[in-house]
């Protein structure tokens, strides 16, 4: 009789501990549900938005090619380097160069997209241009970066990606850049 009672007590204690551990694990998952978008997927989506042409006050056009994205988790941003071609009446011939930017991300609920914003220019570099012309381009740089990348869609969440979260009353919230890609946290809908 004693063995049976000890077995039942031990078993029910183990079940209670297991249930508590399961609930805590579930609570942790509930507290921080997220969706991860790998860098390769971001690269594919952004490539569909390029090439792009940006006119510079009737002097020349900058033709931007698809950027090569890089994750910058230490500053919670993405970086992009792209080939750029400058051509037009003021330049006499075409000049190839590079364009480097960093940007943050935001979620647009109307179409379930992750978009570039808070764009910060690194530098426009054209090895074959005179330094004065390169300086002029860099003076226009922030405006050019904003025009060329403002609100570029990097990813679109499909309804099936968020269906479970929608059913739980959650919506995409903070976006965190990690070493694996973008992590989109889900938060309670207001």
Description of the structure:
- The protein has helices at 2-31, 39-47, 131-149, 159-167; strands at residues 34-38, 52-56, 60-64, 68-72, 77-87, 95-108, 113-125, 153-156, 170-178, 181-188.
- Strands 2, 3, 4, 5, 6, 7 and 8 form a 7-stranded antiparallel β-sheet that branches.
- It has a domain at 50-155: Uncharacterised protein PF07273 family, DUF1439 (Bactericidal permeability-increasing protein, domain 1, Super Roll).
- Helix content is 35%, strand content 42%.
- The protein contains 4 helices and 10 strands; from the N terminus they run αβαββββββαβαββ.
- The longest helix has 30 residues, at 2-31.
- It has 190 residues and is α+β, with helices and mostly antiparallel strands.
Provide keyphrases for this structure.
single chain, 190 residues, alpha+beta, Bactericidal permeability-increasing protein, domain 1, seven-stranded antiparallel β-sheet, three-stranded antiparallel β-sheet, 35% helix, disordered N terminus
């Amino acid at each position: 009789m004693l063995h049976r009672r000890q077995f039942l007590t031990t078993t029910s204690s183990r079940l209670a501990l297991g249930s508590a551990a399961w609930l805590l694990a579930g609570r942790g998952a509930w507290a921080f549900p997220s969706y991860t978008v790998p860098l390769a997927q971001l690269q594919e989506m952004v490539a569909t938005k390029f090439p792009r042409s940006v006119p510079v006050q009737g002097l020349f056009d900058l033709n931007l090619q698809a950027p090569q994205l890089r994750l910058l988790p230490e500053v919670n941003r993405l970086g992009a380097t792209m080939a750029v071609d400058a051509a037009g009446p003021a330049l006499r011939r075409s000049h190839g160069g590079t364009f480097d930017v960093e940007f943050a991300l935001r979620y647009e609920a109307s179409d379930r997209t992750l978009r570039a914003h808070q764009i910060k220019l690194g530098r426009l570099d054209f090895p074959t241009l005179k330094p004065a012309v390169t300086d002029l381009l860099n003076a226009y740089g922030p405006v050019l970066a904003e025009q060329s990348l403002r609100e570029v869609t990097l990813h679109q969440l499909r309804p099936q990606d968020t269906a479970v979260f929608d059913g739980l009353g959650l919506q995409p919230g903070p976006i965190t850049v990690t070493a694996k890609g973008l992590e989109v946290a889900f938060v309670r809908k207001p």
